[in-house]
Design goal:
Layout lengths: L5 E7 L5 H12 L5 E5 L10 H17 L4 E7 L4 E8 L4 E5 L6 H4 L4 E6 L2 H12 L7 H14 L2 H4 L2 E4 L6 H9 L10 H8 L3 E6 L5 H9 L4 E6 L11 H5 L2 E6 L6 E6 L2 E6 L2 E6 L2 H8 L18 E6 L19 E6 L1 E6 L4 E7 L4 H14 L27 E2 L3 H16 L5 E11 L5 H11 L4 E7 L2 E7 L2 E5 L4 E5 L1 E6 L4 H12 L2 H19 L8 E10 L3 E11 L6 H8 L7 E2 L1 H11 L10 E6 L4 E5 L3 E8 L2 E12 L5 H19 L6
Parallel strand pairs: 1-5, 1-6, 2-5, 6-7
Antiparallel strand pairs: 3-4, 7-13, 8-17, 9-10, 9-20, 10-16, 11-12, 11-15, 12-13, 14-15, 14-28, 16-17, 18-19, 19-27, 19-31, 20-21, 21-30, 22-23, 22-29, 23-26, 24-26, 25-26, 28-29, 30-31
Length: 685
C-alpha cells in the first residue's frame, strides 16, 4: 500500500468538456508528479445507470484509492450493454477522477478538491454528440433527466472548490491549475508549481513621454471589466523633491488581463479568486489569505526604476474587515475586499516625465509591450488648459444626471449621536469617536468615468483613484495615506485629523488655515491618533524605530486645509507583512481611540455598515511593498442596491469631549463638498 494520494474530482454535466480538461490537467501535473486518471464513463452500467454508476465508483474505485490501495473495478461494455472486464487503477501522488458524479455527496469526504465544469446547454449537446456520434443522440434527453434528478438532491455545485467556465479554447487547464494552487489542501503537493509561480521574472521598458493619464487609462483599459488607476491627480501642483511631491510622483494603471491576470473578492470569511475562466473559493480570514499571496520578495525592480510597485495586487480593503482585527462582524452590501492581480501595468513618473511599461515574463509579454508602447506614443500630451472628453467645463454633470442624495442621518440624528459619543467619552469608554454617516442616491444613468474626470480636476489629491470591478466602481480623491511599507521594511503612516474649508478670498483663506493651525481641539484629536498609530506600528517594528517626524502640520488641498502628522518605523526582519497591515487596520483616524472599544461604540451608534468607506485603497507589490490610502472623499457606485444601482458617499468627523455639535456637523458638510460639487449635487437638507 502506498501513501494516500491527493484526489481531485473533475465534475460537471455531460458535454461540458470534463474529459479533455482532466487529460490536459493531468499532463501539466505530470511535469512534477505521478498522476493516475479515472473516467466514470467506463463504469456507468448503461444509459440509465448514472446513480448506480456513482455507487460503483465510490465503493470500488474511490474507497480503495483514498487509502492508497489499488482499485479493482468492472468496466461497462457499451457495445454489448453488459458488464465488461476487470480493470485496475493504481494509486499515485495525485489521482484525478473525472465524470458526471465524480464529486457526488457520497464521494466528497474522500476528495481533496472538487472542480465543477460549466458550459452552456447547446454547447454541451454539440460537444457530446460530436464526440460520441449517433450512439449518444437517442439517450441525450434521458441522461440529462438523470443529471437533473441527481443535481436536485445533491449540492455538488455549491460545494465545488473551483468552478470553470469551459470555453473550449484550450485555456481552461492552465486556469484550473492556477486556481488549484490557492487551495490550502493542495499547497503541499503543489509546492513545485507554487515555486515556479514565485520564480517570476519582471521585464520593464522605459519611455521618455508624458501622456495625459486619463486618455492613457481610457485607451488601455476603457473596455476592461476590472481595472485600477492609482492616480496622483495633484502631481502638476507639486514640484521638486518635497515630501508632497514624493507622495504624488507616480501613477499606476493596470487591469487583470494577460497570462497572470486574476481578480479576488472577499466576503464574510470567503475569498473567491478568478484566474481566466476558473474561480476558486476558500474559507478563512482575508488577512490570512493575503499573507499566502503577498509579503515575500518575488521580483526585483529594474535599474533606474524608483517606484515601489513592481506588479502585484491592487484594489481596496473595506472597513468591515475590522471583524478580523478586533471589531464586530458587520455585513456590507459591497465585497469586504476587491483586488486584481496585475501581471502587467503602466507606471507614470510625473517628476521624470517618463513612462514605465512592466510585465511578468510570459508568452504574451512581447505583444503587451508592443501594444502598450504604441498606445503611449499615440496618446497626445494634452495642451495646457485642455478639457478631456466627457468632462463638463462647469465641473458639474448635466442637470438630468445630478444625483439627489439623502443622508442616513438627519442633522438632528447626527447631532444626537454626537451627544451619545460624548457620553461614552465621559464614561471612559473612549477618548475620541470618529462618527460617520452615509449619503446615498439612486445612480440612474450616472456615468462614473465622467464624474471621476470632473472630480480629479476639481479636487486633485495625492492618493486619488479610480477602481472598476465590473459594475462596482470606486472614485476617490483621498489626501490621506493609511500605511506604506517599503520593500526594505520602512514603514510610514500619515494620519489626517482636523479640517477647514477653503475660501476664494485670500485673506479669509489664510485665516481659516491659521484657525486650524492654532486649534487646540484639532491638535488634541490629531495627537491622539498619532499615539494610536505609534502603538499599531510598534507591534511589528524594530524596537526604538517608531518616530514622529512631523506633528500637526497643515496641508492645503483644492477644497480643504488639513492637519497631518507623519509616523515612521522600520519593520522587523522576517515579520509577516500582511499581519503588520492587519494590526493597523482600519486606520485609527477613521475609528478613534482606543480603537477596539471605539469600533464597538461606532457599531452601536451608526445605522449601517460603512462598506468601502473608511477602508484602504492601494497596492500589494511583488517586491513585498505596499502603499495604501484611507478611503475618504470617495464616491462608490454599487450595482447591488435593492432598487438597482446606487451611489454612496461616506462622511464623518472626530468627536471629543469638547466638540460642539453644530461645528462638527458643519465639518462633515465641508468634507463632502469636494465630491458633491464635482457632481453638481448639494448636501441633503
Amino acid at each position: 500500500m502506498t501513501p494516500a494520494p491527493v484526489i481531485i474530482a473533475v465534475d460537471g454535466r455531460s458535454g461540458a468538456g470534463k474529459t479533455t480538461l482532466a487529460v490536459e490537467l493531468a499532463a501539466r501535473l505530470r511535469q512534477h508528479h505521478k498522476v493516475s486518471l479515472f473516467h466514470l464513463e467506463d463504469i456507468y452500467p448503461g444509459w440509465n445507470g448514472l446513480m448506480p454508476g456513482i455507487e460503483r465508483y465510490v465503493a470500488t474505485v474511490l474507497a480503495p484509492l483514498s487509502t492508497g490501495q489499488a482499485a479493482e473495478w468492472i468496466s461497462w461494455d457499451w457495445e454489448k450493454h453488459y458488464d465488461g472486464g476487470l480493470n485496475v487503477t493504481l494509486p499515485a501522488e495525485i489521482v484525478i477522477v473525472e465524470g458526471v458524479g465524480a464529486a457526488a455527496d457520497a464521494a466528497r469526504h474522500m476528495l481533496d478538491a472538487v472542480v465543477w465544469v460549466e458550459s452552456p446547454g447547446d454547447d454541451r449537446r454539440r460537444r457530446a454528440l460530436t464526440r460520441d456520434g449517433s450512439t449518444y443522440e437517442p439517450y441525450w434527453d434521458s441522461w440529462a433527466a438523470q443529471e437533473d434528478q441527481w443535481l436536485e438532491a445533491d449540492s455538488v455545485i455549491s460545494a465545488a472548490d473551483v468552478r470553470v467556465q469551459n470555453r473550449a479554447d484550450g485555456s481552461a487547464p492552465d486556469h484550473v491549475l492556477q486556481a488549484l494552487m490557492y487551495l490550502p489542501s493542495l499547497a503541499a503537493i503543489l509546492s513545485p508549481e507554487l515555486s515556479a509561480r514565485r520564480g517570476l521574472q519582471l521585464r520593464a521598458e522605459r519611455l521618455d513621454a508624458a501622456p495625459d493619464a486619463a486618455h492613457l487609462f481610457d485607451a488601455l483599459y476603457g473596455r476592461s471589466s476590472n481595472a485600477v488607476w492609482l492616480d496622483s491627480s495633484n502631481a502638476s501642483a507639486v514640484a521638486g523633491r518635497s515630501q508632497a511631491a514624493a507622495r504624488s510622483r507616480f501613477s499606476i494603471l493596470a487591469d487583470d488581463g494577460g497570462t497572470y491576470g486574476q481578480s479576488a473578492f472577499h466576503r464574510s470569511g470567503a475569498t473567491h479568486v478568478t484566474a481566466g475562466s476558473a474561480t476558486v473559493s476558500t474559507s478563512g480570514p482575508f488577512f490570512r489569505w493575503l499573507d499566502s499571496v503577498w509579503g515575500r520578495r518575488a521580483v526585483r525592480a529594474p535599474g533606474g526604476y524608483d517606484c515601489q510597485f513592481t506588479l502585484g495586487w491592487l484594489g481596496y480593503l473595506g472597513y468591515e474587515l475590522k471583524r478580523e482585527t478586533g471589531g464586530n462582524d458587520v455585513r456590507s452590501d459591497t465585497p469586504d475586499a476587491a483586488l486584481l492581480f496585475a501581471g502587467r501595468a503602466v507606471v507614470l513618473d510625473h517628476r521624470e516625465h517618463t513612462v514605465w511599461i512592466l510585465a511578468l515574463d510570459a508568452p504574451d509579454a512581447d505583444e503587451w509591450f508592443r501594444e502598450a508602447r504604441t498606445t503611449v506614443e499615440s496618446v497626445a500630451i494634452a495642451p495646457s488648459g485642455a478639457v478631456l472628453p466627457g468632462t463638463v467645463l462647469s465641473g458639474a454633470v448635466p442637470t438630468a444626471s445630478v444625483p439627489d442624495f439623502v443622508s442616513r442621518d438627519s442633522a438632528t440624528d447626527y447631532k444626537r449621536k454626537i451627544a451619545d459619543s460624548q457620553q461614552e467619552i465621559t464614561e471612559g469608554n473612549s477618548y475620541e469617536v470618529c462618527l460617520t454617516t452615509t449619503l446615498e442616491a439612486a445612480a440612474g444613468d450616472f456615468d462614473p468615468w465622467a464624474a471621476y474626470l470632473n472630480l480629479r480636476r476639481r479636487n486633485p489629491a495625492p492618493f486619488a483613484s479610480y477602481l472598476r470591478f465590473g459594475e462596482l466602481v470606486v472614485t476617490s480623491t483621498s489626501p490621506e495615506r493609511f500605511l506604506r511599507i517599503l520593500s526594505d521594511g520602512g514603514m510610514r503612516a500619515e494620519p489626517i485629523k482636523g479640517t477647514r474649508g477653503r475660501s476664494a478670498d485670500a485673506s479669509e483663506d489664510a485665516a481659516l488655515r491659521h484657525d486650524l493651525e492654532t486649534s487646540l481641539k484639532d491638535r488634541a484629536e490629531n495627537i491622539m491618533i498619532v499615539d494610536l498609530l505609534r502603538n499599531d506600528l510598534s507591534h511589528f517594528a524594530i524596537p526604538g524605530s517608531v518616530t514622529v517626524s512631523r506633528l500637526c502640520a497643515i496641508e492645503s488641498y483644492a477644497t480643504v486645509h488639513q492637519m497631518v502628522s507623519t509616523v515612521d518605523a522600520h519593520l522587523r526582519p522576517g515579520a509577516p507583512r500582511a499581519e503588520a497591515v492587519a494590526v493597523a487596520f482600519p486606520a485609527g483616524s477613521m475609528t478613534g481611540a482606543p480603537k477596539i472599544s471605539t469600533m464597538d461604540i461606532l457599531d452601536q451608534l451608526e445605522s449601517g455598515p460603512r462598506g468601502i468607506y473608511s477602508g484602504a485603497i492601494g497596492y500589494f507589490s511583488l517586491n513585498a511593498a505596499t502603499d495604501l490610502a484611507v478611503v475618504i472623499r470617495t464616491l462608490v457606485v454599487n450595482p447591488d442596491g435593492p432598487g438597482g444601482r446606487t451611489l454612496s458617499l461616506g462622511v464623518g468627523g472626530a468627536i471629543t469631549a469638547d466638540s460642539v455639535a453644530d461645528d462638527e456637523y458643519e465639518e462633515i458638510r465641508t468634507k463632502a463638498f469636494g465630491v458633491l460639487s464635482a457632481l453638481g449635487a448639494d448636501f441633503p437638507a
